[in-house]
Write a structure and sequence with these properties.
The chain has about 150 residues and is mainly α. The protein is about 60% helix and about 10% strand. The chain has a domain of about 80 residues: Winged helix-like DNA-binding domain superfamily/Winged helix DNA-binding domain (Arc Repressor Mutant, subunit A). Strands 1-3-2 form a three-stranded antiparallel β-sheet. It starts with 15 loop residues before the first helix and ends in a 9-residue tail after the last helix.
Length: about 150
């Protein structure tokens, strides 16, 4: 018997939140490993993909949709800008806002990253077996929306 098999999990191993956390750790570990060849972290990949799909997206809107606090997002954008993957430009009529665009280098790196991400997604879907990824995503989205209903029983 291994050291971890002797630990009483106090019922947590049958809890949705605990299972979600363990699954999230496994998925992120795999994705982190997958993206190493392009030197991107999962959050950076996500940011590049969203900006690519929404050229000119304002930085504050990106932070809101990703639930990332302003200072953390600024740091990430600064790092991607230093790597010449993203370009920040002022927004007309709002000197405090910044619009985001991928550079040619950013688009090229994102293409490579998307190929690596597809391999990661295939591994995750294999783990699902006969479970529909569509159904799982729908359930996870309902759970994610729970935050807005925190005051309900």
């Amino acid at each position: 018997m291994s050291e971890t098999e002797a630990i009483d999990m106090a019922g947590l191993d049958r809890e949705v939140g605990f299972a979600l956390r363990l699954a999230q750790l496994a998925v992120f570990k795999d994705l982190t490993t997958c993206l190493k060849p392009v030197a991107l972290r999962p959050a950076e990949y996500t940011l590049l993909a969203i900006v690519h799909a929404n050229p000119g997206l304002q930085q504050n809107a990106l932070g809101a949709v990703l639930s990332v606090q302003g200072p953390n997002l600024v740091t990430m954008v600064d790092q991607l800008e230093a790597r010449e993957l993203i370009l920040r430009s002022p927004v007309l009529n709002d000197r405090r806002a910044h619009a985001l665009h991928l550079t040619a280098k950013g688009r090229s790196l994102l293409r490579q990253a998307k190929n690596l991400h597809a391999l990661h997604q295939a591994r995750v879907r294999r783990c699902l077996g006969k479970t529909s990824a569509f159904d799982l995503i729908a359930v996870l989205n309902r759970i994610a929306a729970m935050e807005s209903r925190a005051d309900e029983p």
